[in-house]
Design goal:
With 630 residues, the chain is α+β, with helices and mostly antiparallel strands. It contains 24 helices and 20 strands. The protein has a 4-stranded antiparallel beta sheet with strand order 1-8-3-6. The chain has a 4-stranded antiparallel beta sheet with strand order 2-7-4-5, with no helix packed on it. Strands 17-16-15-18 form a 4-stranded mixed beta sheet, with helices on both faces. The N and C termini lie far apart (82 Å). Keywords: CBS domain. It holds the Pfam family cNMP_binding.
Length: 630
């Protein structure tokens, strides 16, 4: 390596996000860096200039300006600029000039994109460190574009595929030839390019069976000395996380953050139409509130998680102010909540050692439904392998549950007052015991018991053998639809909380406690709506958990007239958004957010439409009583 490159390597190593990169990667970057000199007061970039390099200050300093001429930022040696221009259609949005004589390193765009794609720490540093820049850069545009755009908008090219019986060497050569960091593996009879996807002679379509990435080749082939003439299906990943072609961009981002993915295939009826990489997400306009998930996974203690948990309310308020709907806000907040659980479980295993048997940690209730908001307690449980022996394994899983639940409490997720937490031995069961438990609830439906246990019918795996949660959901969906007594008992419980409307459609207030003369929009609105929707969903065998998605399945099941479903969707959305906006206003005013609202604080529009929404709830509860008679 030349002396100049050695000097560049030494400089890059001193600063994030390069300091955490492998030695060879930094060496490769150094060999592609170009250097330019700018005199003091000279312009480096003007508004609208094209940009195709990430810029790093070697010496000197620069000033960055807003379009109106106001000073935005000042950077010195080691500072990065230009990344927002690379992410925003290669166009400079914030002009830059040299404050003093300066040397600038120019790192090519192709290197920048490759680093974002391959190293999540690099990508997150760029995203999070400059999320304020992004807000300024897109201030004149629709800041909610991820929320309304299809995920396919993130796809930059057709998918590159190869037969499952191709060799590892052939696969690596194809990735190099195509300049991609991932390759989709299709069944052996499949073609090797997206444009040639056609039906077989028997009329069946070709299907994707796996994926291989640069990282997989490094960790599974190169580092292990795996034979290059072996077929690719021996080392490909088969536990695939994918999205449907109709999914939205925000769903793609949430999936990648939640599962810590670098590549997300998009499918149309099982046929791959493209792959979204981290670099595609970084390049696209995105919501800074979602970047918190990446931050969570970089914290190394409960104390550090506690510090960043204080930013959850800011994320919530930003989503509200960006006009996201209740489904989007609930999904984002649920993913953030799950990320805290996942990181705490990682830390717990580091502290306690590897688990003695496999397990699955469950989220229950609103988090499982993707309907969590800013005020929430923790509802969770454990599925244990059928080999579980309390004498051998009980101490470990008790300690694990205490570590996670205490950690969640420290991060603002309060303990469940009803004791529905993994710390309760009652809610640590084996796979077989959980099936017996749910079967007993459905075969012998005691309304009083189901009143406390209905939350378990909203469950999702967040760590460990998460497929066990899916198996349990499938078991519940298959059995519940055949149990009319159980459905009748669940329906009776769903009628226990009524909307706050009097005989003349006047609001009925809470009569005691600190919130007297107010309406609890959760207890008297969104919760009973979720309860009655759950009953219909169980009746049609729906495996969906989100209330809006359950309503789609209920339409297909035909147990509720179509007109009532659209009314239910509108009622749930309106009550949810009044509740959400009320909480956001509380946070912005420095008050403790709650679920209660005083009618005098409602606009005439809100009062009128809330009454209509509560009337929809009341009518739907009457229909529920009729549909599932005791």
């Amino acid at each position: 390596m030349e002396a100049e490159h050695i000097e560049i390597v030494g400089f890059l190593k001193q600063f994030q996000p390069f300091s955490g990169l492998p030695e060879q990667t930094i060496n490769n970057i150094a060999q592609q860096v170009e250097i330019a000199y700018y005199r003091a007061e000279s312009s480096i970039f003007n508004f609208g200039d094209e940009i195709h390099d990430l810029c790093m200050i070697r010496s000197g300093s620069v000033e960055i300006y807003r379009r109106n001429g106001d000073l935005y930022n000042r950077l010195s040696a080691g500072g990065l600029f230009g990344q927002m221009g690379l992410l925003m259609n290669n166009s400079i949005r914030l002009p830059v000039k040299a404050l003093e004589d300066s040397l600038i390193y120019f790192i090519p765009e192709s290197v920048f994109i490759s680093l974002c794609d391959e190293f999540e720490t690099f990508a997150y540093f760029v995203e999070i460190n400059d999320h304020s820049n992004l807000q300024h850069a897109v201030s004149g545009k629709n800041s909610n574009s991820l929320m309304v755009s299809k995920a396919t908008m993130l796809i930059s090219r057709e998918p590159i595929t190869i037969s499952s019986k191709a060799t590892i060497r052939q696969s690596a050569e194809k990735m190099t030839e195509e300049g991609v960091s991932s390759l989709l593996i299709v069944n052996a009879a499949s073609p090797v390019s997206a444009s040639s996807f056609e039906s077989k002679e028997d009329g069946s379509e070709q299907q994707m069976v796996g994926i291989i990435t640069d990282r997989d080749l490094r960790t599974r082939v190169v580092s292990t000395g795996y034979p290059l003439d072996a077929t690719i299906d021996q080392v490909m990943s088969t536990d695939l996380i994918t999205l449907d072609v109709d999914a939205y961009a925000f769903e793609a981002m949430l999936s990648m953050l939640r599962y810590n993915l670098h590549h997300l295939p998009i499918l149309d009826k099982g046929r791959p139409v493209g792959v979204i990489a981290i670099s595609d997400i970084v390049r696209y306009e995105s919501q800074s509130s979602l970047y918190m998930v990446g931050t969570v996974f970089r914290q190394n203690s409960v104390e550090e998680l506690n510090v960043i948990s204080k930013e959850i309310s800011s994320c919530f308020v930003r989503l509200v102010n960006e006009d996201a709907n209740s489904h989007m806000i609930g999904s984002a907040m649920s993913v953030i909540g799950r990320s805290f659980k996942q990181r705490l479980l990682e830390l717990a295993e580091e502290y306690l050692g590897a688990p003695p048997i496999p397990y699955c940690f469950l989220a229950l209730g609103s988090m499982a439904r993707d309907e969590q908001l800013i005020i929430t307690d923790q509802d969770n449980a454990l599925i244990l392998d059928n080999q579980y022996d309390p004498q051998l394994h009980g101490e470990y899983f008790e300690a694990l549950a205490n570590f996670v639940c205490d950690g969640l409490a420290a991060c603002g997720f309060s303990y469940c007052t009803g004791g529905i937490m993994a710390t309760n031995p009652r809610w640590r069961k084996t796979r077989q015991e959980w099936e017996v438990c749910f079967a007993d609830w459905m075969d012998n439906p005691v309304p009083e018991a189901l009143l406390n246990c209905s939350i378990f019918f909203d469950l999702e795996g967040v760590w460990g053998k998460i497929q066990w949660a899916e198996h349990l959901n499938f078991f519940i969906a298959q059995k519940a639809a055949r149990e009319p007594r159980f459905l009748a008992s669940m329906a009776r419980n769903a009628l226990s909380r009524t909307p706050p409307l009097g005989f003349f459609k006047n609001f009925v207030m809470e009569q005691d406690g600190q919130h007297r003369n107010s309406i609890n929009l959760k207890r008297r609105g969104t919760a009973p709506l979720a309860d009655l929707i759950r009953v219909h969903a169980l009746a049609v065998g729906s495996k969906a958990r989100n209330s809006f998605e359950r309503l789609d399945d209920i339409i297909k099941g035909g147990v509720v007239p179509d007109g009532r479903i659209s009314d239910l969707k509108d009622a749930l959305e309106f009550i949810s958004m009044v509740r959400i906006r009320h909480q956001a206003l509380d946070i912005e005013a420095g008050r403790t957010a709650d679920n209660n609202i005083e009618p005098e604080h409602l606009s005439e529009f809100e009062r009128r439409n809330l009454k209509d929404a509560f009337q929809v709830l009341s009518n739907s509860q009457r229909f529920l009583r009729f549909r599932y008679p005791s």
